[in-house]
Amino acid sequence: FDLMKNEVVLYVGRIVKYKGLDYLVDSAPKIIEKHPNVKFVIAGPVSYYSTNIPTPYYRALKNKIESEKLSEYFIFTGAVNDEDLIGLYSACDLFVLPSLSEGFGIVLVEAMSCGKPVIGSKIDGIIDVINDGEDGYLVSPAQPEEIASKINHLLERPDERRIMGINAKKHAEEMFDWNILAPCIM
Questions:
Q1: What would the pLDDT profile of 102-114 be if each residue is shown by its tens digit?
Q2: CA 42 – CA 45 distance, rounded (Å)
Q3: What is the C-alpha separation between 143 and 67, in angstroms, rounded?
């Protein structure tokens, strides 16, 4: 697919149940209805570490996508190196992290540092990163309707996406720069 001709919603992380990807899949039909050229890019390992054996959750997710006839909208990249990851962050229109549990959403900071608005679940580890309405949106966990609503909202408003992306980059630089954080932990 051509990143320039499609609206790209990016997820980066492991393909495991607590990351809430099934809720992103459940939100997809409402997004596709309004944005038929959308692509959901899922970047992360699909198999157990150091093996080529796909995890049961990945297989279940792929089966769900296929049974709901959404395969043409979802792209699984597998694990990606840092250079390709920066390219994905830079090429996406927005980033989504629909997790049910998160220690700290470092992928949110990475997307923000590339100037992208972010959508994440209203849970510990994410609420400390996103300034709701300024650099992204917080959504209730396990709520596909809210995920779809916020993704549609941002895809329909390129100017708001751009402004939120600028705010996100500034927020990431000011709050999560190691030069700022390192003196605090020494």
A1: 998 899 999 999 9
A2: 9
A3: 21
